[in-house]
């Protein structure tokens, strides 16, 4: 994305209306490769957002002295277990599933075991499941990359190379999100920069784009793109955004899902979602309990589903 020549940067935008999840995901993947961020219009119905709000809002608590949030930011955490609609509709969204699998599935290695040399394939798991409400007076966050959590460090690339990212974040807007109430500020193209390069100055209007979206729209960013919450300069608007962070299978989850959740609630979800939240293991051997599938700990009567027959 050419943003070096004084031309205002833009965030690719796709419309979910009428698109299959598969086709939508393909367009989002293209947008993310080019810009490191993509806006998805009309992703959720107003009814679904109503349900999400009703389930999440009672859990909002003042972030207080939490490490990286500013004053006047109120959060809810551990949403995987607290909101069934979040688990099924946000974590389980088929477009989001395809997009995160695309970016976080790649070969690592090679590794030797005796005379055998092979590679291992990564996959995706939940990183964090939160809600961020910016209240009037919240100041802008410093522009950052979310992969700093996992000590991401890349050199410059001219084009996107699979394996560059260790994480992605999906934002779901629960109300109209615009510059004045703190829309996320994004630097399109910065996912390809050398990591020694600092973010643009906070007032750089050419490189920084406010991800302005309507209620029910989504925004996806790669862990390698510079971004940050905006300032809420309104008198009385609250900016309410759900976040779903995902990370590579071999890394520690940003939010400790084993302690954040009530496992009784997790057990009500479909098996792939239980595993994605963290109650699963990854080859060749991460997350095992008794050298076995951790799902058997939370569900002692668990039986592997029969493979589907044609
Ligand atoms: O609030 C936002 O818009 C972005 C939050 C964010 O980037 C973060 O907490 O890492
Ligand atoms: Fe961030």
Topology, pairings included?
Blueprint: E1 13-15, H1 21-35, E2 37-41, H2 46-56, E3 61-62, E4 73-76, H3 79-82, H4 84-91, H5 94-104, E5 107-113, E6 116-121, E7 124-134, E8 167-173, E9 185-186, E10 209-210, E11 218-222, E12 227-228, E13 239-248, H6 257-260, H7 263-266, H8 271-277, H9 295-298
Parallel strand pairs: 1-2
Antiparallel strand pairs: 2-11, 3-4, 4-7, 5-6, 7-13, 8-11, 8-13, 9-10, 9-12
The structure holds 2-oxoglutaric acid and fe (ii) ion.
The site of fe (ii) ion has 3 residues, from loops.
Please report the first level of CATH classification, the CATH class: Mainly Beta
What is the total number of structural domains? 1
| Strand content bin | 15-25%
Structural class: alpha+beta
Spans of at least 5 consecutive residues whose pLDDT stays below 50 are none
The largest sheet has its strands arranged as 1-2-11-8-13-7-4-3
Helix content: 10-25%
Kindly report the CATH topology: Jelly Rolls
The residue-averaged pLDDT reads 94
Pfam families: PhyH
Q: Overview of this structure, please?
A:
- The protein is of the alpha+beta class and 310 residues long.
- It has one domain (13-259): Jelly Rolls (Sandwich), CATH 2.60.120.
- The chain is 22% helix and 21% strand.
- It contains nine helices and 13 strands.
- It has helices at 21-35, 46-56, 79-82, 84-91, 94-104, 257-260, 263-266, 271-277, 295-298; strands spanning 13-15, 37-41, 61-62, 73-76, 107-113, 116-121, 124-134, 167-173, 185-186, 209-210, 218-222, 227-228, 239-248.
- The chain has an eight-stranded mixed beta sheet with strand order 1-2-11-8-13-7-4-3. Strands 10-9-12 form a three-stranded antiparallel beta sheet, with no helix packed on it.
- The termini are far apart.
- Bound molecules: 2-oxoglutaric acid and fe (ii) ion (FE2).
